[in-house]
Amino acid sequence: MKPMNERLVHMPRSGIREIMDVVEAMSADVTRLEVGQPHFPTPDHITRAAFDAAQNGFTRYTPNHGLAEVRASIATKISHDYPALEPTADNLVLTVGGVYALALVVIAFVRPGHRIMIPDPGWPNYTLQAITANATPLYYPLHQENRFRPDIAELERLVTSDTDLLVVNSPSNPTGTVLNVDDLEALLRFAHDHDLRVVSDEVYDKVVYEGEHVPLASLDTEGRVITVNSFSKTYSMTGWRLGYLLADPRTCQELTKLSEALISCPSSVSQKAAEAAITGPQDSVADMVDYYRGNRDLAVRTLADGGARFVTPHGSFYVFIDIDGTGLDSSRFARALLEAERVAVAPGRTFGPSGSSFIRASFCTSRHEVERGVAGIVRFLTSLRSHPDRRPARGVDHRS
Amino acid sequence: MKPMNERLVHMPRSGIREIMDVVEAMSADVTRLEVGQPHFPTPDHITRAAFDAAQNGFTRYTPNHGLAEVRASIATKISHDYPALEPTADNLVLTVGGVYALALVVIAFVRPGHRIMIPDPGWPNYTLQAITANATPLYYPLHQENRFRPDIAELERLVTSDTDLLVVNSPSNPTGTVLNVDDLEALLRFAHDHDLRVVSDEVYDKVVYEGEHVPLASLDTEGRVITVNSFSKTYSMTGWRLGYLLADPRTCQELTKLSEALISCPSSVSQKAAEAAITGPQDSVADMVDYYRGNRDLAVRTLADGGARFVTPHGSFYVFIDIDGTGLDSSRFARALLEAERVAVAPGRTFGPSGSSFIRASFCTSRHEVERGVAGIVRFLTSLRSHPDRRPARGVDHRS
Question: Hey, which residues 44-63 in chain A have their CB within 8 Å of chain B?
Answer without folding.
Answer: 44, 47, 50-51, 54-55, 57-62
